[in-house]
Amino acid sequence: MLVLIIEDDPVQADLMQQTIERELGAKVRRIATESEFYTRLEEIVARRPDAIVIDVMLRWADPAESMPSKPVDYNATGGYRRAGLRCRKRLADHPGALGFATLLYTVLNREALMGISDGEYLQKGDGFDQLLNRLREITAMQPKPVQKGTQARDPRGS
Amino acid sequence: MQDGVAGAKALECLVQTAMAQRELSGISQMLRSIAQSLDAYGCLLWHPSDDSDFEASPPAGSLFVMAHWFDDGNASAFEGIELSSVVGQVAVTGRERNMPGVTDAADISRKLYWWIEERGIRCFCAVPVTFSDGLRGALGVYRKRNQPFTEPEIAVALQLAEALPGLYRAVHDRVSFELVSRIEELTGVPVPSNDTNVRFPLQEICEAIGKTFNAYEASIFLTDSAASPEEFRLQATTWPPETPLSPQRYRLSDEGITPWVLRWAQAIRIFNLGACEPGKPIDDSRYPDLVWRDPLDLVATMMHTRGAKDRDKLQPLSYMISPVMEGTKVLGAIRCCSMLTPPFIFASRDLALLRVAAALVAKFWSTTTEIWRWQKFVHSISKLNQQAEERLARVEPDIAAIEQACDTVEAEFGGRQDSFREVMQQLVRQQRQLYERLGTNMADRISAQSKLEKNLKEQHQTYEDLFHQIKTPINSAFETIRSTLQGAATREAYRAGLETLRSQMRRSSRITKAVGIFAELAESRSIVAHRAKLQHPGFLRAVTELSEDYERMQERYRELRFVVEPRGFEVLKSHEVWVDEDLLFHALANILDNAGKYSYSSTKVRIFVGLTGTARFHISVANKGLRILAKDHPLLTQRGFRSKEAESATGEGSGIGLWLVEKIMEADNGELLIIPSNQEGETEVKLLLRAQKEPHAVPYARIDH
Which helix (H) or strand (E) holds B525? Predict the structure, then answer.
């Protein structure tokens, strides 16, 4: 199981990684900024993570002498306050990312995020219990990969 | 004695008759009374023509019939008769003449003779009459039977002829009074609000004037306030409607009697217009350049009306016009043309009466037009206000269109130099000021509203950010505690867990403190500083702890280090720095937070303290990261400001950090100093505080040593 965490708070990200790895036995990969997400989008799609946990408020990039340019509609689409929504959309628009399970994990109220289904939203609470439960649900719903050499059977039996 | 009684009775009868008259034509009834008292067929009252001069040698002029009465009701029409005739001589000499037989009298006017023959008159007498304006005329009393007038009858005739002008004047006065009363009554009604309504009193006045003088035409021309002040429009007339009066408008430059009166503001009375030649001057000595054009074909009309066969047989065609004046300004003219019944001629007192009527009309018209102007002006102002109201409703602060409308109103009403113009200009000026204030206020309101909306949005975002900032460490704290409790097996692991927890608490504390200060400042309350002296080892330890916590909060891969340089802290041993430590640490935490956010990876954030050149205590944070551009420098302490580059590196934060730091430093009598990036790209932020050399520093130092 592979979980991708898009979270710019290092302490939070550290804890999430430790907890998910410990509790779910999953591998965790981390992305800290929005621009990093875009840069690594193809890699993410190729790795096909089982779940992608996205914080909504994200910084665009780490401070550097030369920083990547922001999208033209950056401010019009909410700036850093809605960066996670842009990431989610970019992923949804990617033809190779069809069926990816994404979870917006944020302190923001549900009302602040229009057009997001209940299944995709989880408000940050006190600790990661709920997050772990949701990740368990998501991974349980994923179809098991068919083992090479085995044949699918009719569940009704023959 | 008997003759005296007859005279008194005749006089009494004449007085009673006069007293019963309500019209100027009552003069005929007075002549009836005289004729009946003298047992005569009828009377003719002769009036001298306007050009008469009895003192000239030979006397000049002629006599016209002013009034008449005959018992068979037959009217008479006479052109002027010669002064050399019997009647003319009576007027000129003032001596009566008794004419017992007229058939062979050679000195009877030839013009009169045919009439005497036609009527079968056998004898007559003529007695002098002195009219109230001093003009001399004659009264002719005629009998059909052959019974010459006796001496006593002549005496009675003289007596009655002497009384006649005075009594007629009384009638004239009464009629004048009634006309004036009627006009006052008509002009005393509430002023009409529009053009149609004003025609009613003017037409009534016209009718009253026409009736008083029994004139063939009475017309009122007045300037139309809406048009040029040099144009006078027909407002009312008694001219028969079958053939419309023409022209209906006069300009000052037009030719003719009415324009002449309007131009020269002088009243005119023409004794006999019928004697004037159209197209030629009427009376150059009295009315220079006055030319009659007869556009109404008045002579032909009057000949037709009065049944005169030719122009010479036409009774005097009297004509009078009075200008309607307001002060020295001509508002118009009232004209009257030819009396249809006796008295056939307009006397000077008739013109005087017309001038009184004109004065009343002037008063009425000037008041009315003034009120019209005011009404129009009020309407214009009302329209302006309506425009302003519409703009107000649409929240449009641009009042250029209203300014233009104000210009139009001023141009429309500012033509004449009078008190109205002054008042109007003052009012328009006030309206302009009002509109300007309205526009400015509206613009201010829009700006304020926009600011308020922006503030509200910013405030909402600030709260959202603060919520995010505080919730994240709390969330992490819970998980840290859980994982520490569940997973820490060693003392070091516990310590690491607790240090992580302290970092998270540090963040939470900074945010809660910010919320508290923000709330106080939002209510315009100032921050209260509770100062205490900074102690050297304690302060160094606290700063070190703080910097460790902020280092711990950073991404490991960024390899950012927070380094406290301890040497400068020594200064606290020799200097007193009084400060609210809690607030100071909050300020420092904000600066470290910024340094952590905006520093490049693998760099150092230096924290050092010391004394400045001006002996102030400074706590400085230097870092190498996103540059502060000179243009952004003045904006850095503005609430919500972030430079373009800083925006890219911000994932959370309310943008109030430096704003709060500045407020805190102000409360602590300190200063926030931001030194833009130097050539090495290092930015320095300093918190400056007052420092005082410790008074006992040296002695204590000596003791310590």
Answer: none
For A2-141, CATH number out of 3.40.1280.10, 3.40.640.10, 3.90.79.10, 3.40.50.2300 equals 3.40.50.2300
Alpha-carbon distance of B462 to B659, in angstroms, equals 13
Q: How do residues B542-590 score in pLDDT, each as one tens digit?
A: 999 999 988 988 878 889 999 999 999 999 989 999 999 999 999 999 9
Taking only the tens place, the pLDDT of each residue in B80-126 is 788 988 899 999 999 999 998 776 556 677 777 878 888 889 899 99
Rounded (to 5) percent helix, strand, coil in chain A: 40, 15, 45
Radius of gyration of chain B (CA): 56
In the block, which residue shows the tokens 């004419």? Answer: B99
- E-strand stretches of B156-283: 215-223, 231-237, 249-251, 268-270
Closest by Cα among A58, A35, A48, A43 to A105: A58
Is A19 part of the contact surface with chain B (CB cutoff 8 Å)? Answer: yes
B553 and B503 housed in the same domain: no
* Ranges A95-104, B18-27, B236-245, B317-326: which has the least confidence: B236-245
Domain closes at, from B476, B499, B523: B523
Is B490 in contact with B452 (CB distance < 8 Å)?
no
B30: containing domain:
2-169
Instruction: Write the ipTM.
Output: 0.81
Test A59 with B648 for CB contact under 8 angstroms: yes
Sheet containing A121-123: which strands, arranged edge to edge? Answer: A27-31, A2-6, A51-54, A102-106, A121-123
Interchain contact, B651 vs A63, CB within 8 Å: no
Check: CB of residue B276 under 8 Å from CB of residue B286: no
Using CB atoms, pick whichever of A15, A33, A112 lies closest to residue B476. A15
The answer to the question of residue B301 being in a domain is yes
Instruction: From chain B, pick out residues whose CB is under 8 angstroms from the CB of A79.
Output: 647
What is the rounded distance in angstroms from the CA atom of residue B367 to the CA atom of residue B222?
Answer: 13
